[in-house]
Design a protein that fits this description.
Elements lengths: L9 H4 L2 H14 L3 H10 L8 E5 L5 H7 L5 E6 L2 H14 L5 E5 L12 E7 L8 H9 L2 E10 L3 H16 L11 H10 L2 E8 L3 E8 L2
Parallel strand pairs: 1-2, 1-4, 2-3, 4-5
Antiparallel strand pairs: 5-7, 6-7
């Protein structure tokens, strides 16, 4: 689920209908633009025998793509039961269920026994955690080699759209919120946890960054 963080109302926002629509779109058109940009950078590395931890995995697009590129094991975490159900079913259809593991819940609240992975990805996830530093700290601990993130650009237009969305959720009495954390603070936190940035790209809305563990 993109932008999924510690969503108390994940099931209401990201339900069965949304999950199935996103899967149909992915099967027809492939990953969306910002996800493709992140995948392209990850694919510059030799992924044979590597592992993936995808936080806020949604329908599992990143995992499915990288399993085709040599990754041997994926762990997907999402707060929406509907997304996890759809992702499990698609993994079974593709014949990769034995290499695809799924967890339901807020990553920061799950047990610490999630194994370290060669690659950790957070595709449009940081934007929905109020406590960015906690999420970055816990997720970078699980990254052995690469750490890939997609988060909103700090622009007035992006903030305005998110404010409108949050207002709609308030009126609907839904607790889900989105946040625009300053990109420089995200970058500084990741670097402080032992990573160096090797690529930064932008779209109108998103920043796509890939980091390597220093040393």
């Amino acid at each position: 689920m993109n932008c999924c963080g510690s969503c108390q109302d994940a099931g209401r926002i990201f339900g069965d209908g949304t999950a199935k629509r996103e899967l149909r779109r992915y099967l027809k058109k492939g990953p969306n633009k910002s996800t493709r940009m992140l995948l392209d950078e990850i694919r510059r590395h030799d992924l044979n025998e590597w592992s993936l931890l995808d936080i806020g995995s949604g329908i599992g697009a990143i995992g499915f793509e990288l399993l085709d590129d040599g990754v041997t094991r994926t762990v997907s975490v999402d707060a929406s039961p509907a997304y996890v159900s759809v992702s499990r079913a698609e993994a079974a259809r593709r014949g990769v269920a034995d290499r695809s593991h799924h967890l339901v819940g807020d990553f920061t609240s799950l047990p610490d026994d999630i194994p370290v992975a060669d690659v950790v990805t957070l595709d449009r996830v940081i934007c929905c955690y109020p406590h960015m530093k906690k999420l970055v700290d816990q997720s970078t601990e699980k990254a052995g080699r690469l750490y890939g993130v997609v988060y909103p650009r700090d622009r007035w237009s992006v903030r305005a759209v998110m404010r409108i969305g949050n207002l709609v959720n308030i009126l609907r009495r839904i607790d889900f919120r989105t946040y625009v954390h300053p990109p420089v603070e995200i970058d500084n936190r990741i670097r402080a946890n032992g990573f160096m940035r090797v690529k930064l790209q932008r779209t109108i809305v998103w920043e796509i960054a890939l980091y390597e563990r220093a040393g």
